[in-house]
Sequence to fold (941 residues):
Amino acid sequence: MTETTHSSAPENGNGQLSLSTDAAKQLATTTKTPPQMQEITSRWLLRLLPWVQCSGGVFRVNRRLTYTLGDGRITFSNTGSEVRVIPAELTELPMLRGFDDMEVLEALAGRFTQREVAANEEIVSEGGPVDRLVLIVHGRVAKVGRGSYGDEQNLGVLADGDYLGEQTLIEGGQFEFSARAKTATTLLTLSRQDFEQLAEQAPALREHVERWRTSGDHDTNDYGEAAINMSAGHVGEAVLPGTFVDYEQSPREYELSVAQTVLRVHSRVSDLYNQPMSQLDQQLRLTVEALRERQENELINNKEFGLLHNADFSQRIRTRSGPPTPDDLDDLLSTVWKEPSFFLAHPQAIAAFGRECSKRGIYPQSSEVSGHRVPAWRGVPIFPCNKIPVSSTRTTSFLLMRTGQENQGVVGLHQTGIPDEYQPSLSVRFMSINEKAVISYLVSAYYSAAVLVPDALGVLEDVELGRNG
Amino acid sequence: MSTQPDQGPDQRLSLDTAAARNLATTTKTPPQMREISPRWLLRVLPWVDVTGGVYRVNRRLTYAVGGGRVSFSNTGSRVRVVPPSLTELPPLHGLDDDRVLDTLAGLFEQREFERGDTIVRAGRPADELVLIARGKATKLQAGRYGDRVVLGSLAGGDHAGSDQAGSDQAGSGPPAGGAVWEYTLEAGTACTVLALPWEEFHAVASQSPALREHLARYRARRAAPQNKWGEAAIVTAAGHRGETTLPGTFADYDPGPREYELSVSQTVLRVHTRVSDLYNQPMDQQEQQLRLTIQAVRESQERELVNNPDFGLLHQAHPGQRVYTRTGPPGPDDLDELLCRRKRSRFFLAHPRAIAAFHRECSARGVYPDSAEVEGSWVTAWRGVPILPCDKIPITRAGTSSILVLRTGEEDQGVVGLFQKGVPGEREPGLSVKFTGIDARAVASYQVSAYYSVAVLVPDALGVLEDVEVAR
Fold:
């Protein structure tokens, strides 16, 4: 028979015979995750940096006295296609370092003439007289020299903000290398006559340059440090040189920086809704994670102590062609050759480097660091860090550093034992409850990073990610 | 003077950090110093205690001598041999007759070659002594099946064809039996070559009894029984049957063995007593001065071990253990060539930029050398031999450097560092600090001295790859 009798079981109107899961859920406890957060990264930099206790809030890095050849990069302003050098920026040139007569600098900036150069065009040629100062506004320029048997030698790449011919502009002489544009390049040039003419009119400039020229006579070692005199390999009763080790007069001091926020929790929330998870703890956990992310971001990007800004100019190199090739990383390794600890790069930059390796048929060995397998290059691990900025034109940087105070490397600074400490160098302090019953907590993290000697940190700049090969 | 809290918008409400710092103690680093390098050479060399201050390396008697570099002087484009340096040629080794050397130097004829030109050709009569004054040349031979076989390369200061001096009678005219070149010499770069016909050489010899006698001694030395390294042979019999008379033999020693005296790096450190008396919290001023000075002395020690003209490794390498790069930059082939000349190579030593150049060559060939761990640091290894960086190896203005490879240890007949234990006032092994007094200006002086040297026990313990272009 197909005709069925109504079952005797009660019906709930949906045709269901038993209790639905929806209804059953009302009685059961849902298993919940704590709140998840996409922003959390592995924060390798914070994990790998050795943290030095900085009691007193200030960390002074004492160094041997160094006669800096102080050079930096020059920046430009442009209106339309016309480019001008910012007058105050001219003091980045070694010979004008510390010169503060703005009027003369303005006049000097006005004498520069703009020149556009096509790719592969020669800008200066080897053996040619040094008759001009060349500032590179935009573009990539290769320095080429002659080897002992007359072949071409690659002496490095210059780009935006670099300059040529500054050393000998005053003395004259010859260029010891050729410079060739690798891309279309915008230059500003200042002829030697113009410079001398201006120096005639401005005695302050002449004096400054004269002082700079005579200041180069210090006895130094290869790194520009005041020499420790000694004699070696002598026989007989030679008179020994007396010496002492001079220190920098005003060493750099790093103050602990701070990342802070005020966390607000309504007292009704934190009083009542605490099973199974404490509401306050979860709020605090996520806030601390966000604060630590911010801390890592600051350690890399802060203008004062961020590693990208704190690297010495002699320790910054440019890629040879654009994408991060094995050759570029080898060049970077030779800047921090004294026992490097690790590379740090944006994940996309690591991928771009992997592509370049594959193209050459190279498969770098990975290495193991505290239980994790990470890619490595020449035995030096490469860690990802998404805080390294990628510019709108898809360029980024690679960092390479030596760490540890005993190695004269890069160290992180913090202070443990602060009041209401929640984690090392991070405090959570009860502030108040306001009239709307909202409780406020002040969450502060104190940190900084110091580079003990300049060659502890190298930066490979101008790494292009967008080239597809 | 009343201070209202609301005087301006940027008026502070509390004490600022700059003011607070005046009460706090700043955390300080000890003085940092850029010059300090890992000093791998000092770390990996085995150090031998030289109690008497002199270390004598006894070797077996060697007949093969000379073979170093000839040097040249040039005036304009005219190149001339520096006469005393002709004694680096094996036939003339030890000759001290300046007049004869002058005459010989004047007889050389200068020739210029372009890249790819043939300097001498295999099979042609070997009637000349050839010196390379500038440039690089490749030794080529026809292989068994007619292909080109590269035997090696020569560079500035090297010579070819000197073995003909012994093969014929001095003063007896042209080469007997018509000796021929066994290889072709091809210019790898633009080359300047000086050539001396044997005919003229023998003409000089017939005039000069001194030279004639010297050549006779040279021939006798070459004829003496010797093994392939030029050591006086230890005659043995093997594979014989029956009652053959066995050869009697002995191992002859070098009668004038080389002695290494300990060299020294010294300085006098001066500290004003007022500084060292008063400013000692939290760091001992004198201790810090001493620490940095010692670091500088150790750096100087490593520099001397590499560069000292008397015992420095770059200068001590045997001419037969010097090889040139094939093309210029240091490729894997060049390092293989360097390795195959030595048993048990322990490590390479190269300037960081030379290492980068080597890495570039590897990458260009699609080769990824392994890394090896040395004392806790990871460095690149080639064929299992770690390449250690050393910034004391010079790079010339033209961008060339050298790569060293060493076998170390006394028991392996390798390279050893020399020092003396227990020198008075010893502070570290081989380094002493002595208080020398306080002068009338209240300045205390300390003499800091490091004693050291380095010895190569057997010539093949140390090899040098020269002419390494680091920036090509």
Observations:
- Chain B touches chain A through 76 residues (CB under 8 Å).
- The domain at 72-223 of chain B is CATH 2.60.120.10 (Jelly Rolls).
